[in-house]
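C-alpha cells for chain A. Residues wanted.
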C-alpha cells in the first residue's frame, strides 16, 4: 500500500473509536484486519497498527488541543468523520516528524473529500491550519 492508502486505513480503524468502548478496541482492531474486503501484508498491518496505537494513546490530549484551537467548536459537536480526520491530522502535524504539516493538511482534506460532507474539507483545513505554528515551536 502507498502512504495515502495506509492513511485511509488508519482513518477507518480510528473511526471505530467513536462507536466502541475502550475495552472493546483490541477486538475491533482484530476484526478490522480480519476481513475479506482488504488484504494486508505484515508490513502494512504493523504500520497501521503502530500509528493507530500512537494516535489512540494521545486521543485525550489531541481532543483537548482541538477544543482549544477550534474556536466555536468542541469535539463533541463535530461530525464523527470530521473529528476522526482532524485527530489524524493533528497527530501527524504535532507528533509525526516524517510528515510535514502541509502534507498532513492536504491528506486530511483528501480524506474529507472522500468520506466527509460537502464542507468538511474547508472546515478540516481551517482547524488544522491552526496547528501549523504549534509544530514550529
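Reply:
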Amino acid at each position: 500500500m502507498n502512504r495515502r492508502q495506509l492513511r485511509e486505513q488508519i482513518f477507518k480503524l480510528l473511526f471505530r473509536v467513536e462507536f466502541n468502548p475502550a475495552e472493546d478496541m483490541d477486538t475491533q482492531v482484530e476484526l478490522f484486519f480480519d476481513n475479506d474486503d482488504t488484504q494486508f501484508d505484515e508490513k502494512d498491518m504493523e504500520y497501521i497498527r503502530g500509528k493507530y496505537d500512537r494516535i489512540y494513546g494521545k486521543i485525550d490530549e489531541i481532543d483537548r488541543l482541538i477544543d482549544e484551537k477550534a474556536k466555536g467548536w468542541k469535539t463533541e459537536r463535530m461530525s464523527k468523520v470530521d473529528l476522526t480526520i482532524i485527530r489524524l491530522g493533528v497527530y501527524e502535524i504535532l507528533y509525526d516528524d516524517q510528515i510535514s504539516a502541509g502534507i498532513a493538511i492536504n491528506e486530511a482534506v483528501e480524506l474529507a473529500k472522500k468520506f466527509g460532507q460537502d464542507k468538511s474539507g474547508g472546515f478540516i483545513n481551517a482547524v488544522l491550519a491552526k496547528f501549523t505554528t504549534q509544530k514550529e515551536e
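The mean pLDDT is 93. The chain has one domain: 3-136.
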